[in-house]
Amino acid sequence: MGDFITFEGIEGSGKSTQIRLLFEYLKGRGVDVKMTREPGGTVIGEKVRGILLDPTTKGLIPRAELFLYAAARLQHIEEVIQPALDEGKVVLCDRFMDATVAYQGYGREVPLNEVKVVNSLVTVDLKTDLTILLDLPVEVGLGRARERNLADAASATSRFEEEDLVFHQRVREGYLAIAAAERNRVKIIPADQPMEKVARQVQAVVTRSLKLA
């Protein structure tokens, strides 16, 4: 059985960059590693991702949003994550069920007990071995995300980036609450540092977790 490592954080926290850097680092160490993302990771999941992140789908109600994420995740687990773990690979995933708790639970204010029931129905016995939480102030993260979108014509503003600061603050508080409750699994790394420094800290945490020599 392989190891399942997830990356979490608010918008603009640098998850996509850091997971890519860790992927290259682990490959260089000879680790059999698979990189994927949520929502997405499969053909069907990517189509659901399009709905979830499209700014024109503002009418999507919170519980419908929750179930769309759940559907994409179930497809992702069955088609990509579990097979890779069964092959003994290290799986790196950009967001997983903590994101649902933070965004739909804390952010959208869907009752947490409902979110947890939906998550448990989808994940069943699948557990995350390690979660890297890239944390930084909301204003900094949103500023980064919007600068990225302006600099890169291929980067479209997502529906979540258009939410107000209060929403994103609730999401960050949700992530920090998860980390406080599960200190052994969730490791917080300050993301308002130079990219290279964050990468070194991520590598150190993962190297210890995987017991790499």
Question: What features would you describe in this structure?
Answer:
With 213 residues, the chain is an alpha/beta fold. The chain has a single domain (3-210), classed as 3-Layer(aba) Sandwich (Rossmann fold), CATH 3.40.50.300. The protein is 56% helix and 13% strand. It is built from eight helices and five strands, in the order βαβααβααβααβα. It has helices at residues 15-28, 43-53, 62-86, 97-107, 112-123, 138-151, 165-181, 195-210, and strands at residues 3-9, 33-37, 90-94, 130-135, 186-190. It has a five-stranded parallel beta sheet with strand order 2-3-1-4-5, with helices on both faces. α2 (43-53) packs antiparallel against α3 (62-86), α4 (97-107) runs antiparallel to α5 and α4 packs across α7. The protein is globular. It starts with a strand and ends with a helix. The model has no long low-confidence stretch (mean pLDDT 93).
